Amino acid sequence: MSVVMNLVLDQYLKQIDALLVQAGAVCETFAEVGGYALKGYSLVRENAPAVYISTGMHGDEPAGPLALLELLEDDLLERNLTFYICPCLNPTGLSLKTRENGLEFGGIDMNRDYILQQTAEITGHVRWLKKLVPNSPELFISLHEDWESGGYYFYEINCTGDKPERYEYLVDRLKDVMLMEAEQVIDEHEVRREGWIYHEAESDIPEGWPEAIYMAKNGCPLSFTFESPSALAMNHRVAAHVVAVNSVLDYEYGD
Ligand SMILES: [Zn+2]
After folding, report:
1. Is residue 239 included in any domain, yes or no?
2. Residue 95 three-state SS
3. What does each C-alpha distance from 74 to 22, 115, 156, 212, 243 come to in angstroms?
């Protein structure tokens, strides 16, 4: 594992677009910000469960986009699922390597903008998400990083039925790649088990809804927000995201 990984935004967007369009996905531009088109892709398979994956919300967290690229280059889309994919929600932040979007576009943490919708990015994104109804996603996965943690962790929002055994399965798969975060309190949340924040479907900040709360409030019954530790090498944290996504999909739908 000595490959040097680095997110080159323009190249990433082209590669992602080629892979998705080649697989038959329909692309829709839902916002244009700073010369970048924000795109949502839909690959609809009849009678297949719908899964929505988003990355690139925080511009200083490139592991998510790179993991998505790796998943698409592998066999993600060969699974018999309907996929909705937003590969880059914050292109201006990613180009500047900032958590927020570019200053001239608000300098806002867009993962707190799903109620107020102060940014063109999230306003367009919500409009796009609303159109997924009636074939709306039953599973939402988003890929992030954490600059403070030393291990892997995730948020689960579950409105469909508790499955603690799924945690065991995920951790068992992840342990070959990365240790779970050992702290009992992560990001001000007490963990349920190591690296597992079992989060209610309510926002920590009433007016600052993140994407996962928006999804839960709009009928998506299950979501995972995966957090890879920025302190570790890029290839390491990308590998953990790839395993996490595949593990959830394997658990829910078989491999
Ligand atoms: Zn993030």
Report:
1. yes
2. helix
3. 14, 35, 25, 26, 12
Read off the tokens for 95.
């180009």
Q: Residue 15 belongs to what domain range?
A: 9-253
Averaged pLDDT for residues 185-197: 97
Q: Amino acid letter at 112?
A: R
Task: Tell me if 37 is assigned to some domain.
Answer: yes
* Alpha-carbon span 234 to 232, nearest angstrom: 6
| Cα three-residue angle 68-72-75, rounded to 5 degrees | 130
Domain count, the chain: 1
What H or E segment, with its residue span, contains residue 236? helix 234-253
Above pLDDT 90, what percent of the chain? Answer: 96
Cα(254)–Cα(56) distance, rounded to whole angstroms?
A: 27
Q: How far is the CA of 219 from the centre of ligand 1 (A)?
A: 22
61: CA distance to ligand 1 center in Å? 6
Whether 6 shows a pLDDT value over 90: the answer reads no
Domain assignment present for 23: yes
What is the Å distance from ligand 1's center to 105 Cα? 18
Distance 46 CA to ligand 1 centre (A): 32
pLDDT for the residue numbered 2: 40
Length of the chain: 255
Q: Tell me which H or E stretch contains 37.
A: strand 36-43
Strands 185-186 and 36-43, how do they pair?
unpaired
- Note the pTM of the prediction, 2 decimals: 0.97
User: What CATH code is carried by the domain that includes residue 36?
Assistant: 3.40.630.10
Taking residues 45-58, what's their average pLDDT? 97
If you average pLDDT over residues 46-71, what whole number do you get?
97
Q: pLDDT tens, 198-250?
A: 999 999 999 999 999 999 999 999 999 999 999 999 999 999 999 999 999 99
